[in-house]
Here is the input.
Amino acid sequence: MIVPEPVTLGPRSIDWPPSEVAAINAARIVGMPDNETGALVIRLEFARKSSAHVLLRHRPLSEQLQGHLLYQHQQGRRGQ
Here is the structure.
């Protein structure tokens, strides 16, 4: 499975930001192909590393991505 790199919390502890887990789950639920999910992972990791987790219209990044992913998926199905 394609997932972002974990965040190190301590010498023997790792975790993933809940917003990233939600975004990957949403991608899988809508049937996003692996190559698109990989691109999503790259964007999530970049956002984390650049401290770009910014709220847009007071919505968490995961909600923005879920809406965007669903829209992209629906548009892709219409074009087929």
